[in-house]
Automatic annotation (TrEMBL):
Limits of the Metalloprotease TldD/E N-terminal domain: 26-90
Residue span(s) of domain Metalloprotease TldD/E central: 121-224
Protein name as it appears in the record: Modulator protein
Annotated source species: Sphingomonas lenta
A GO cellular-component term linked to this record: cytosol
Highest taxon listed in the record's lineage: Bacteria
Alphabetical list of Gene3D superfamilies matching this protein: PmbA/TldD superfamily
Domain Metalloprotease TldD/E C-terminal per the UniProt entry, residue ranges: 231-447
Family affiliation: Belongs to the peptidase U62 family.
MF annotations from Gene Ontology: metallopeptidase activity
Length: 448
């Protein structure tokens, strides 16, 4: 695999070739990845996979017309053909007065921040197999576990580079490791499945396989013999595994494209109180060895910690350069760029700050409610904010989490849900988006 410097140089060379071929402006992305994945089941090796890929993406502008092309053939002849084709396509494309590279004065200059995203590891398949077996063994050892869907371990290394004709060129490398187990408890028609997974940039920061396996087994057993919930309005408490999706809906609603197209339920909400006053949501691309940390955005702009919601108030849209121009605003450093196509927007290490009370206090006054550990389906309307999803979890009775429940639906509107949201104090950074346990009062529950 190329080094970051080599990847950066390759992207720069393609941009220079595009300018020589007649483009007025251009940017190029080079992405390479190598990964190994191991899966086991019932104590036996089931699959070993190794993949290596390299791709080059080029976007060119001729006036206000643009075109994007991508290739995995990195030979000199193929790249030369790619450049000629891209410029020819751009000359025939429709005009788009909003499209274009990021403003030169906004680009990152100087050395990017050091984020410790690459531990330079390359574990042998045998080591990954041992981790997967240990995780599955620990899950199968939990009393009540009767079968296994398997354990898995993976390791990868990626290099990503971006160059633009406005003077930016940068690249960085990341490593990633994952470990999981998925098992079943019970027999026949009463079987229940659950899983546990952990991912990290550094192998040394992965949870122990025994811990991951135990967690998977205990979760599956706890779900046995689920009952039914009564229908009505009640408090709903979201486990952090699923509560992060509520923040994901927010991000979709405040993306520049949604605002520019007027397709967001938060269209006029900037600067207003969207959440309860105790809620703050931040994005931190500079978190050391964070799962989504990055030194610059998909257009070459500098990135930094951002308050998206501060004490309940929505502080910003998430804007790439095109949506910023359309809205008469400035890009926010949240552009995301794949190998093909124009940039969109994304967050990095997104999280909701913890509240002030432990989970036990959060639920102690709930006489009848539900603790949700699984969400099913995609019943969320980004235009209206209407929310309706299937769910499973555990009943809350007299301030205690009690018996498992399944086959029920929770419904409300996100605007109302956000204003009634209360976070607990148990935030952990385990995923790309992290939240503490969340309580929302007065949701409509339809039992089975």
């Amino acid at each position: 695999m190329l080094t970051p410097d080599q990847a950066r140089d390759r992207a720069q060379a393609v941009v220079a070739a595009a300018i020589r071929a007649g483009a007025d402006a251009a940017d190029a992305v080079f992405a390479a990845d190598a990964s190994t994945e191991i899966s086991v089941r019932l104590g036996q090796l089931e699959d070993v996979g190794r993949s290596e890929s390299g791709e080059l993406g080029l976007r060119v502008f001729v006036g206000s017309r643009s075109a994007s092309v991508a290739t995995s053939d990195l030979s000199d002849d193929a790249v030369a053909t790619l450049v000629e084709r891209a410029v020819a396509m751009a000359r025939e494309a429709p005009e788009d007065k909003w499209a274009g590279l990021a403003p030169p004065e906004r680009l990152l200059h100087g050395a990017p921040p050091l984020l410790d995203l690459d531990d330079h590891g390359d574990p042998e398949p045998q080591a990954l197999r041992d981790l997967a077996l240990a995780a599955e063994d620990a899950a199968r050892a939990v009393p009540g576990v009767t079968n296994s869907e398997g354990g898995g371990a993976s390791a990868s290394r990626s290099v990503w580079a971006l160059a633009t004709s406005h003077g930016f060129a940068g690249a960085y490398a990341t490593t990633g490791y994952g470990l999981s187990a998925s098992v079943l408890a019970g027999e026949g028609g009463n079987m229940q499945r659950d899983y546990a997974h952990h991912a990290a940039r550094h192998a040394s920061r992965l949870d122990a396989p025994e811990e991951i396996g135990r967690r998977a087994g205990e979760r599956a057993v706890a779900r046995l013999n689920p009952g039914k919930l009564p229908s009505g309005e009640m408090p709903v408490v979201f486990d952090p595994r699923v509560g992060s999706s509520l923040v994901g809906h927010l991000i979709g609603a405040i993306s520049g494209q949604s605002i520019a197209r007027k397709t967001s339920f938060l269209l006029d909400a900037l600067g207003s109180e969207v959440f309860a006053p105790g809620v703050t949501i931040r994005d931190d691309p500079h978190r050391p060895h964070g799962l989504r940390s990055r030194p610059f955005d998909g257009e070459g702009l500098p990135v930094g910690p951002t308050a998206i919601v501060e004490a309940g108030v929505l502080e910003t849209w998430l804007l790439d350069s095109a949506s910023a121009r359309q809205l008469g605003l400035e890009p926010t450093g949240h552009a995301a760029r794949g190998v093909g196509g124009a940039p969109g927007v994304t967050t990095s290490n997104l999280y909701m700050e913890p509240g002030r009370v432990p989970v036990s206090t959060l639920i102690e006054d709930i006489a009848d409610g539900v603790y949700v550990t699984e969400l099913i389906g995609q019943g969320v309307n980004g235009v209206t904010g209407d929310y309706s999803r299937g769910a499973a979890g555990f009943r809350i009775e007299n301030g205690r989490i009690t018996t498992p429940v399944a086959e029920f639906t929770i419904a409300d509107n996100l605007k109302d849900m956000y204003r009634r949201l209360t976070p607990a104090n148990n935030l952990e950074f385990r995923y790309g988006t992290n939240v503490p346990t969340i309580r929302i009062d007065g949701m409509t529950v339809a039992g089975g």
